[in-house]
Design brief:
Largest sheet: none
Helix content: 55-70%
Distance between the termini: 28 Å
Number of strands: 0
Protein name: MFS transporter
Strand content: under 5%
Low-confidence stretches: 459-466
Keywords: Membrane, Transmembrane, Transmembrane helix
Radius of gyration: 23 Å
Structural class: mainly alpha
Shape: globular
Length: 466
């Protein structure tokens, strides 16, 4: 396996760094399929009955709640594997890591296909949830870490390119999965088993392309004509490196943990309930018979949010290269808090346009938060262990994936049980989200440069080539 070792993937002097973004996108567009996994939920819950039009399945069919565990387990293992294997990723390099990610993520589809054929939910969860989730974690952090090393002059742009791909993976994965299930509908599993096999094979080819294309820069490399600026007193971009174990002990790490957790919590809960929320807040009962938001229109709203989520990852991370990471998050939290506070008023006004526009901006900042945080970590801790540090920070994502939906769904249910109309049941939740973003604003405001006692020995001065 020597070809996969880090020392065999060091770029030569004539290799261009602009080949790294396609390699990163090949992986992130593939693993981003997890955001489109919901297209399999209903077919998986009708494997025995074979009737997708029935409101309930046959005896022995899995419930939607049980099927939903696959997605939750995958996200949990994404965060957990990122934290556990972060040091290994930095030590072994991106080629071996992305190769392992491809085998795990795509192998998970093959195991899940067997689980579908045997009608074994634990086997499907183990395949797409556990194996696939670990593949997600390795495939998520390794390209980002490598891009930051290749683009020290534009880290926000670099990470935005890759993480935009992760956000857009569902735009490919959802229609691909739907089309393949229709093509293989007669395979005895409503097309799910055959679709898993085909998608696993297709994604394997793309991810292996990314793994074999990727390179790491030599230790003495820097972009032609670029010179790191000396760190000014109080400057927010460090020229020093902090190793992962030391970073874990700094207040900056935990402040940024809070920043990511609060930004994601506020966005992910709404993203998971967007379709139901817009239909209940703008129903026929509210707007008049025939004027309410239909299920088809709500699906379009969810698609629009996905586009803004994806575009925000690139636009906001690129903006952060010009205005700085800390000011960018100030905008996220201040503007987000105002919009969440205003959303109930937009609903009471019956203004669908303002409601949609407000959530599109919120979702762009939700996606932008994911893409900007790696560059923020690079500013604080340097490039030496940024992948491992990023991996540990992603535990904030795992926690937010539990807290956000629980807040939205829990408060909605309690409000409805208290007799409050469904159209108004989200007001309390929106005010809580606004309050969380105010806390995030304070946490971001408290971020300062890392103290010198945490610095590692700097590397030798860099030589220049591109």
């Amino acid at each position: 396996m020597g070809f996969l070792d880090r020392e065999h993937s060091v770029a030569g002097s004539n290799w261009t760094r602009w080949l790294v973004p396609p390699a990163a996108l090949a992986v992130h567009l593939s693993i981003g399929q997890i955001y489109g996994y919901s297209v399999f939920n209903k077919p998986l819950s009708r494997l025995i009955s074979g009737d997708l039009t029935a409101e309930t399945g046959a005896p022995g069919d899995w419930s939607l709640f049980q099927v939903g565990l696959i997605f939750s387990v995958a996200l949990f293992f994404l965060g957990a594997s990122s934290a556990i294997f972060g040091k290994w990723v930095e030590r072994e390099g991106p080629r071996k890591t992305m190769f392992a990610s491809a085998l795990l993520f795509c192998g998970g589809f093959f195991v899940a296909a067997l689980g579908v054929k045997l009608h074994s939910l634990p086997l499907v969860i183990f395949g797409n949830g556990v194996l696939g989730g670990i593949g997600l974690g390795l495939g998520y952090i390794s390209p980002v870490s490598t891009l930051i090393k290749w683009f020290p002059d534009r880290p926000g742009l670099a990470t935005g390119m890759a993480i935009m791909g992760f956000g857009g993976g569902a735009l490919i994965g959802s229609p691909l999965g739907t089309a393949l299930m229709a093509r293989f509908a007669g395979d005895g599993t409503l097309g799910v088993g055959s679709t898993f096999l085909v998608m696993g094979a297709v994604y394997l080819l793309f991810m292996l392309f990314g793994a074999f294309l990727i390179r790491v820069p030599a230790d003495d490399w820097k972009p032609a004509g670029w010179t790191p600026k000396p760190q000014a007193a109080g400057g927010m971009i460090s020229t020093h490196n902090v190793l992962v174990d030391q970073a874990f002990r700094t207040p900056q790490f935990w402040l940024l943990f809070a920043v990511l957790f609060l930004n994601v919590t506020a966005g992910i809960g709404v993203l998971g309930q967007a379709s139901v929320m817009i239909q209940e807040m703008f129903s026929d009962r509210v707007l008049g018979a025939g004027n309410g938001v239909t299920a088809a229109a709500a699906a379009g709203f969810v698609g629009l949010l996905s586009i803004f989520n994806m575009a925000g990852r690139f636009i906001w991370s690129s903006t952060s290269d010009r205005i700085g990471r800390k000011p960018t998050y100030m905008i996220f939290f201040a503007l987000g808090a105002v919009l969440y506070f205003l959303i109930p008023m937009f609903g009471n006004m019956g203004s669908l346009v303002l409601f949609v526009a407000g959530f599109c901006v919120i979702m762009s900042m939700y996606g932008g938060g994911f893409a900007t945080i790696p560059a923020y970590l690079r500013d604080m801790f340097g490039t030496a262990n940024v992948g491992a540090i990023h991996g540990r920070l992603l535990l904030a994502w795992s926690a937010a994936a539990i807290v956000g939906p629980s807040l939205v769904n829990g408060f909605r249910d309690s409000q409805i049980k208290a007799g409050i109309p469904a159209a108004q049941a989200y007001s309390t939740t929106m005010y809580i989200m606004a309050a969380l973003l105010v806390v995030g604003f304070v946490a971001n405001l408290m971020v300062r440069p890392v103290a010198e006692k945490f610095w590692a020995q700097n590397r030798a001065p860099a030589a220049s080539h591109d």
